[in-house]
Amino acid sequence: MQNSAVPALDAAVIGEAAGVKATTADGGVVRIGWPRDDVKVKVDGMSLQPFAGLGSWAAFLPTEHGAMVMGDTVVFQDEVSPAMDAAFANGLEVSALHNHFFFDEPRVYFMHVGGSGDPAELAAGIKAVWDAIKAVRQKRPEPATTFGGASPSGENAITEGPIMAALGGKVESKDGIVKVSIGRKGRMHGMEMGGSMGLTTWAAFSGKDDLAAVDGDFIMTANEVQPVLRALREGGIHVVALHNHMIGEEPAFYFTHFWGKGSAQNLAAGLKAALAAQAAAEKELGHGK
After folding, report:
1. What is the pTM of this model?
2. Residue 101: left if φ>0, alpha if ψ -120 to 50, beta else—which one?
3. What pLDDT is attached to residue 282?
4. I need a labelling partner for 66 at 20 to 30 A (CA). Which of 9, 78, 227, 249 fits?
């Protein structure tokens, strides 16, 4: 039931800002949607219709100071970074990025977004995310199968020193691959645990110094998620997953997996910026490692 002291939302205003029809649901919530019928998807060999789980949506809840929006956005692999960039550019947060299916062709993912503020501005932000996705499909109707650009090949030969200098942490090398690990502490079921139990930020550099690939994982508390995601994207590093690994840990941790290509030096600089953004958020809230 909607709080009578909170002003009702105008579905027409939200719909106009979003460029789609908006409807009012229980509790005064205004909803908009976009069925992804532009790309045909098969799951386990069966054609899946948008109504069965391929619909992007956003729901606006009236609040004392405007609205709160939550939504789920259907994204194919080459749409994720443009959609995420559009979300950040329009003041929205990204709260999850994951799959809903197995054996889907093409691979389809779901990016959950949220935010608070003026209802029309939030709706315009959702529209910007959806428009960014549409722009990708206008250029290429079928989802891409790679990020594009050159990829490392041949034997791995990453130089350890510059990466250690940039990122610190525990550095290991094997078969020309350099891996950095930075642990932090938490508690679960009354027991203290740390990096050896999986509470780590890590990054593995493959390829060569002038053309490398980096993959890895950031461990974050809730207030660190948005700064880290933004810093990764500003550094040209792709966010490929955002989820939890545990239930019941203290504090609650979230993990984002990433992938990037370029010179090892530039990739390390991008990760260093993300670590700095995380440290600033951590200091602000007072969480210790």
Report:
1. 0.95
2. beta
3. 83
4. 227
